[in-house]
Specification:
The protein is about 15% helix and about 30% strand. By secondary structure, it is an alpha/beta fold.
């Protein structure tokens, strides 16, 4: 799909300097610009590239005035970075603007869906599924019985949403995510053999939740595993049964959260963090990557390490740890000197 510089300027409410009819069909970095590409200049350290870029159109701040000849058409806006971000969002919407039901696909006779549904080929909608308006479901997706999906949600290819789960409005579920799989519930009998405990709860995703690729959110044993409004989950995260994550919390890749733990609002959790079950983590908590959390955490704490310490204590301890060989040598020398005296 091609756009003229003027069409882009109209979207961004900017002014064209140069050829308003020149067309672009792709995006690029300014230093890697090629013909028919669109780029932007926001960081002053990249200014030299605007004189050599082969990009056909460049978005710049209104304050920018070239000091040498340029070959690219300019679109001048109030804030080049924000304008380019807006354009990326618009481009993504255009790219994902699919509608209609592809074949083959299975839709239960009791399923209901709103206007402008896109259902990709080889997808499955179970009994009593309810889907809102403008929902996009990409190919090879499974939607189990009694699932509800809110307006404007996008579910990418190969995702699986098990029965009875609830997905809010404006959610994004990336490829390979599994929502509502059984929690890890087993109990040993008198012989020591582990027997499965039925998991009969569900998963609730509130509005504006993003779920990364290959992330798994287990259904509750009873009740619900709940992901509150605005939560952002990276790829390959494991969230166990009956976990609750507060609104606007963000969690990086490969983090594992054990069952029945409650995480507060506006938390930031780094990659590969391990969190034990049945604890409470407060609001506004920050946990550094690869930390192990084995206790309750109060509001506003910053933690690092395994087991995790207060961030400042960890840094102080690490300084001593690095110097441990010297400290041991000093102690040994002191003992020798005392022994010789």
């Amino acid at each position: 799909m091609k756009f003229t510089a003027q069409q882009i300027a109209d979207i961004l409410e900017g002014d064209v300097v140069g050829d308003s009819n020149i067309k672009v069909s792709k995006l690029s970095k300014i230093e890697e610009g090629v013909e028919e590409s669109l780029t932007f200049l926001a960081n002053p350290k990249y200014t030299p590239h605007i004189y050599t870029t082969k990009a056909s159109v460049t978005i710049v701040n209104k304050s920018f005035e070239p000091e040498n000849d340029i070959n690219t058409t300019l679109i001048k806006v109030d804030n080049a970075y924000k304008a380019f971000s807006k354009l990326l969002e618009y481009y993504n919407q255009v790219k994902l603007n699919k509608s209609g039901i592809e074949e083959p696909s299975h839709i239960s006779t009791s399923a209901k869906y709103g206007d402008n549904l896109y259902l990709g080929a080889f997808s499955y909608l179970g009994d009593n599924v309810t889907i809102g308006d403008n929902v996009k479901i990409f190919p090879n997706t499974y939607i189990g019985d009694n699932v509800t999906i809110g307006d404007n949600t996008v579910i990418f290819a190969g995702s699986k949403i098990y029965s009875d789960c609830s997905i809010g409005k404006y959610c994004v579920i990336n490829s390979g995510a599994i929502i509502g799989a059984d929690g890890f519930g087993f109990s040993p009998d008198e012989t020591g053999e582990y027997k499965k405990v039925p998991q009969i709860g569900n998963v609730i995703l509130e509005d504006f939740v993003d779920v990364g690729a290959a992330t798994t959110i287990d259904r509750a044993t009873l009740g619900s595993t709940i992901i509150r409004k605005g939560v952002k989950l990276d790829n390959q995260i494991q969230i166990a049964h009956n976990v609750e994550i507060g609104k606007n919390t963000v969690i990086a890749a490969q983090t594992g959260i054990a069952g029945s733990t409650k995480i507060g609002e506006n938390c930031q959790i780094g990659g590969q963090v391990g969190i034990v079950g049945h604890i409470v983590i407060g609001n506004n908590v920050k946990i550094q990557a690869q930390s192990g959390i084995g206790r309750n955490v109060k509001d506003n704490e910053i933690l690092q390490g395994s087991p995790a310490l207060a961030y400042s204590d960890f840094n102080k301890s690490y300084v001593h740890f690095k110097n441990l060989p010297k400290i041991v040598k000093s102690l040994n020398d002191l003992e020798k000197n005392n022994g010789n005296s």
